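pls design
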């Protein structure tokens, strides 16, 4: 499969402070990648390196071109975490001005219509609500018909409908071969949409792969229920790793969910409100960062 990004032995420091340490990874063309890490893990620095805003030690190839080749930037769109706030400029004027810098240019009127923002075309940027401004910032990343899209916390400030629209739009773009790199603290969203996860920890890659592959490394099942069993009884059930009380519920963490549930079958008459779930991306990430060693 063609690679949209290739990174080999990439390191970067701010002065004497190391941020990224010998990263190597590939990104398949047409994939959605979730870039995850705590604040200070190096996510923003990595994005700037991939977009050519910073230069590091190592090799970076983007869209088949080596870092620094001007052809790269013609195929990149970026949605920064901060929104463009230009008083006196209308939405349409902003998007038209931005698209002028690209060889491939989207039709701004069509772009606004397709994304449900046609009524904002002539509204001034400083008159937009926070959610509207965030949606316009997303469109600013699309004006050059990108083949590679970087999104930094894209859904912050968006309501539910706007979020749903954005994820549908990204899936449509992925289907046409656009590669999408997303950083977000809303891990439940990345869990649902990302083909691959790239987890940074202390300037290094802690994990790269699908959520299913990550989940397989943390083979825990979370079982919740109400009942009359005691903590001592539950701790003796096969596979149970931990037991805790959460209000009226018992919460059991098991390393062998099937064995635990098989044993609990004999007590189903004493249990109610039973729910079973594998570890979420959020809970796995919380476990990972608890083991982080800060050098």
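designed seq:
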């Amino acid at each position: 499969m063609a690679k949209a990004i290739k990174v080999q032995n990439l390191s970067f420091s701010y002065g004497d402070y190391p941020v990224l340490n010998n990263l190597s990874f590939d990104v398949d063309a047409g994939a959605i990648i979730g870039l995850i890490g705590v604040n200070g893990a190096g996510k923003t620095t990595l994005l700037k390196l991939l977009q050519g805003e910073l230069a590091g030690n190592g090799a970076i190839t983007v869209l088949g071109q080596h870092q620094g080749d001007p052809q790269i930037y013609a195929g990149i769109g970026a949605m920064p975490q901060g929104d463009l706030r230009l008083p006196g400029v209308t939405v349409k004027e902003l998007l038209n001005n931005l698209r002028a810098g690209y060889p491939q240019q989207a039709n701004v009127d069509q772009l606004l219509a397709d994304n449900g923002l046609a009524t904002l075309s002539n509204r001034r940027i400083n008159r937009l609500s926070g959610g509207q401004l965030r949606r316009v910032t997303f469109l600013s990343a699309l004006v050059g018909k990108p083949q590679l899209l970087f999104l930094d916390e894209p859904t912050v400030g968006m309501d539910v409908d706007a979020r749903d629209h954005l994820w549908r739009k990204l899936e449509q773009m992925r289907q046409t071969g656009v590669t999408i790199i997303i950083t977000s603290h809303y891990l439940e969203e990345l869990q649902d949409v990302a083909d691959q996860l790239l987890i940074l920890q202390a300037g290094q890659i802690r994990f790269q792969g699908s959520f299913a592959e990550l989940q397989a490394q943390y083979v825990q099942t979370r079982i919740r229920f109400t009942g009359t069993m005691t903590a001592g009884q539950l701790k003796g059930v096969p596979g149970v790793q931990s037991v805790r009380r959460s209000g009226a519920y018992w919460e059991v963490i098991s390393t062998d969910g099937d064995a635990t549930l098989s044993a609990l079958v004999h007590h189903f008459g004493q249990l109610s409100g039973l729910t079973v779930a594998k570890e979420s991306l959020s809970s796995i990430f919380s476990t990972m960062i608890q083991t982080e060693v800060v050098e």
